[in-house]
Amino acid sequence: MSLKILKAGMLDSIQDMGRFGYQQFGINPTGCMDRYAAAIANCLVCNDLNEAVIEIHFPGPAILFEQKTIIAITGADFNATINGNNVPIYHPLIINKNETLQFQSPKNKSRCYLAINGGIKLDRWLSSYSTNLKAEAGGFNGRKLIKDDVIELNNMIESFDLKEEPFKILPWQANENFEPTSSEEFLVIEGSEWRWIDKQSQEKFLKNPFYISHNSDRMGYRLASEPLNLIEKMELVSSGVSFGTIQLLPDGQLIVLMADHQTTGGYPRLGNIISTHLPKLAQMKAGDNINFKFTDHQTAEAVLIKQQQHLQQLQIACKLRFENYTHEFRKENH
User: What is the CB neighbour count within 10 angstroms for residue 59?
Assistant: First the structure.
């Protein structure tokens, strides 16, 4: 059982929740930019939350499914179609064999995630399926997906007879928002070098909007605004950084480190965006503006627990719905 890339998208790659435990060797974690959307996609198709998914940007790919399977699309809405028919996001669906999934136009956000029931048949590199583009390792041959790539899948779905229908939408869905939140406000934990900048710069950081630059990628989002200034020029010994670290560059501008960030950095760390707000940031585009607001570890931890509880409840509910649906289908067809 396999899928085939008929047309490559702009940057399609195999990702999971990241490659951890190797940063001391200079190997960055990589992984999905929007890990929350990827986890929801896996919930919908009854996978483990860390199962490999395909991260898709627009223009998106054309993907031929050579066997019937169950898929789910989450994250950005790129107006997905199968055989010319629109299909919803945040719903699982059965796609028939020899049908093609395509993406017609970007409606919102920046990245979508395609999960496939049973996952993708690949070997892990250092305990992860994620593609490390810089190291040319992991994922599918260590690179983005290109035309004529054939990717083997783990599961073959035979129990559901679609006859001539190109797809069937399954009767459950997910709610992506586990709590209301401002689209532009990002909660931040104070960084180790926060007090290195002067009072005026601290006020700018908390009051001024910052705009995402076109010079942004999976390694980091460069932000544009009024320059921030150090109280005095100081050299920082290269120190550990993580997804969401906000660094002050020599020109006074900021960069937020993203999924493909380096393992250490020598620029002052003004703060770190809380992990539950990183998916929201990952879906923003060049020109969007963001604002920072400080919070504490206790608040950040409480929101994270709430998000994890939402995913656990969703995972259990989807498995129960799938089992019930399978049972009813068998009753009707015997």
Answer: 15
Model confidence over 53-64: pLDDT tens digits? 999 999 999 999
Helix axes 35-44, 297-332, angle to 10 degrees: 20
On whether the CB atoms of residues 164 and 171 are closer than 8 A, the answer is: no
- Say which amino acid occupies 211: Y
pLDDT in tens, 22-48: 999 989 999 999 999 999 999 999 999
H or E stretch including 36?
Answer: helix 35-44
Q: Between the CA of residue 202 and those of 199, 235, 251, 254, what are the distances in Å?
A: 5, 20, 16, 13
For residues 195-205, give the mean pLDDT: 97
b (16+ CB within 10 A) / e for 194-214: bebbeeebeebbeeeebebbe
pTM of the shown model: 0.95
DSSP class of residue 39 equals H
Tell me which residue of 118, 120, 66 sits closest to 97, measured CA to CA.
Answer: 66
Cβ-contact 52, 40 below 8 angstroms: no
Task: Name the CATH topology of 185-295.
Answer: Cyclophilin (2.40.100)
Backbone angles phi, psi at 80, to 5 degrees: -70, 145
CA-based nearest residue to 177, from 293, 279, 54: 279
Residue ranges covered by each domain of the chain: 2-178+309-332, 185-295
User: How many angstroms separate the CA atoms of 41 and 130, rounded?
Assistant: 16
